Amino acid sequence: MALWAIALYHDTGMTAANQERVLRGTGVTPLSGVGTVFGYDPDADLSLPDPPDPAAVEADAELGRFRRARERVRENLAAERERTAERVGEEEAEIFDAHRQFVDDPEIEAAVEARVGEGLPAEHAVDAAFADAIEQFEAAGGVTAERADDLREVRNRLLRELLDAEVSDLSALPAGAVVVAERLGPGDTAQLDPEAVGGFATATGGRTSHAAIMARSLGVPAVVGLGEELLTIADGTTVVVDGDAGEVVVDPTEERQERVREAGRDVAVRHDPVATVDGRSVEVAANIGTPAEAPGARDQGADGVGLFRTEFLFLDRAEPPGEDEQYEAVVDVLETFEGDRVVVRTLDVGGDKPVPYLDTAAGENPFLGVRGVRLAPGERADLFETQLRALLRAAATDAGDGLAVMFPLVATVEELDDLLARVEAVAASLEEAGLPHRVPELGVMVETPASAFVAGELAARVDFLSVGTNDLTQYVMAADRGDERVAGLHDPRHPPVLRALDRTVRAAHDAGAWVGMCGEMAGDPDLTELLVGLGFDELSMSAVTVPAVKERVTETDAERAEALAERALAAETLADVEDLLAEEGAE
Ligand code: PEP
Ligand code: MG
User: Fold this and answer.
1) Which listed residue (99, 124, 210, 490) is catalytic?
2) Is 210 a catalytic residue?
3) 314 within 8 A of 360, measured Cβ to Cβ
């Protein structure tokens, strides 16, 4: 295993923190790595000289150069697609299909032809045509803006061919290199060897960029959106890339480096369900975004899927997926898990996940606006209904026994009653149409303080609750999950969050429902004992952290864990909780 590690929570105060400098961004993998900076500029050698006199430019010759360059880029993309499909997976390889579409895009071609017609040589024409497209993507904001890096990568491929510039090779970096760049494209990221590199860090970019998706699939520690200050770090400087906290620590102390290395040791994969030393079973499941991630999750020993974020099927496209496409995606995951539980979350767009065909981004504060199940009634009720039809049909297939469905961002009992009525209505219409269907296990995500306060009433109506601590923490603490300036407040170990968790677990159990957690907190092995002590029946996390959390469950004594939870619930401050956890960890 490379020098990467399951992320540790922030500094516990034991280190001489004054020599360290911390840059905050967005973590894209829950992994940490330590290494030395290798500065990389994807645009290096691609600056263009001033264009020649238009009269000296022969349009036909320039268009010929452009077409030949395009042909070579197509060939390179096809080769990289094949390599990525073998090394990473089919889903990731499809990113190169999207790049191929940019290469063949008729609007970009027309723009290049027009610029050549105005007297520009091919490379200047390509640069200008892509500059316009990049500007349009960035102006659209959200996920579309993150695709601008894909456009840049395609532009650079074309320019490299036209300028005969050297092709970047990140596949053979020195061991422990941490790639530091303004931005990375998915093609750059796909070259990284997760066994060798310490990670990567970029000044720009977001969690859902293709480079971020590729990093998660490869298991490379990565933090993006760190700002321009990142680019001032000299080559060879030692850094820790903490993908969980979303931080890059410059000149980390020896203790911190050691902790990261220690946490990165090999942990055995356990394929059987696990229990505490005194016999309490805890289900350890994986979070996935697409069916392509399911086999990898199984390979890490996940007992099932605790959160299938179906919105990834809805992003990056002009139209929502139809009923059959959704049905097939869910059946695919159910078949991979062969009857083990697969919890599918209904569509959770809005907030930080806008989609072009829905007006969810409108409003001053999208996180408090129309997101999650707030979309179920209203103008696009059809989207929710279509998804439910697909899910109820999937539940009736051979592998459908394991299906469970949960609703995101519920705040009130009325909302849940309305959702349950919609499920009944969909079941009735499938019955009428004579289509095989079944109402699966149903659950509610506890992500709002409101739902934690009425957890008992919610749990009485469903089979399970699952706590989304990413949102619950943001709403309990009034601290935006993506704003690094309030990252200290967005920490689920704050006593108010712990008390919301306790109330939720008790309410669920009193109502006879099981209760899980699928926020990032569940994937931190240093918190496993606390969560077992609080009484969680299931923990669901990024697949890479499943082995370490399973190991921690087997080392936990449930009675002792309960005593720890009791002390944590009595704590007044985050520092008290940190001290308790450090004490417990040291024993
Ligand atoms: C959460 O909020 O903790 C959660 C699991 O949902 P998401 O991160 O997709 O909002
Ligand atoms: Mg959430």
Assistant:
1) 210
2) yes
3) no
What is the SS3 assignment for 425? helix
Q: Is 99 one of the annotated active-site residues of the chain? A: no
Quick check: 62 pLDDT over 80? Answer: yes
Task: Identify the nearest ligand to the CA of 472 by its number.
Answer: 1
Atom of ligand 1 nearest to the CA of 287: 5
Output the CA 310–ligand 2 centroid distance in Å: 12
Pocket of ligand 1 (CB under 6 A): 307, 309, 348, 447, 468-471, 518-519
For residues 18 and 351, give the distance between their C-alpha atoms in angstroms, rounded to a whole number.
36
Which residue among 469, 471, 490, 491 has the greatest number of ligand 1 atoms within 8 angstroms of its CB, and so is best to mutate? 471
Annotated catalytic residue, options 124, 490, 494, 518: 518
Q: Which two tokens stand for residue 244?
A: 């969980």
Cα(371) to centroid of ligand 2, in Å? Answer: 10
Residue 13: predicted pLDDT:
31
Give me 555's structure tokens: 């080392």
For the stretch 506-529, pLDDT in tens is: 999 999 999 999 998 998 888 999
Taking the C-alpha atoms of residue 398 and residue 51, their distance in angstroms, rounded to an integer, is: 64
Tens digits of residue pLDDT in 304-317: 999 999 988 887 67
> What is the rounded radius of gyration, in angstroms, for the C-alpha atoms of the chain?
25
Q: What is the pLDDT of residue 148?
A: 85
Is CATH 3.10.20.740 the right assignment for the domain spanning 21-43+168-263?
no
Look up the CATH architecture of domain 58-163.
Orthogonal Bundle (1.10)
Distances, alpha carbon 54 to alpha carbons 47, 64, 128, 158, 309, in Å: 19, 17, 15, 21, 53
- For residue 140, the CA-to-ligand 2 centroid distance in Å is 24
Residues of the chain with CATH 3.50.30.10: 21-43+168-263
DSSP state of 547: H
Beta carbons of 301 and 270 less than 8 angstroms apart = yes
Superfamily of structural domain 275-586 = Phosphoenolpyruvate-binding domains (3.20.20.60)
CB atoms within 10 A of CB 585: 10
Mutate to test the pocket of ligand 1, among 208, 287, 309, 480 (most ligand atoms within 8 A of CB): 309
pLDDT in tens, 497-506: 999 999 999 9
Dist. CA 422–CA 442, nearest whole Å: 13
Is 516 within 8 Å of 466 (Cβ atoms)?
Answer: yes
Q: pTM value?
A: 0.67
Tell me how far apart the alpha carbons of residues 490 and 482 are, in angstroms, rounded to a whole number. Answer: 9
In order, the DSSP letters of 143-177 are: HHHHTHHHHHHHHHHHHHHHHTPPPP--TTPPTTE
Please give the distance, rounded to the nearest whole angstrom, from the Cα atom of residue 518 to the centre of ligand 2.
9
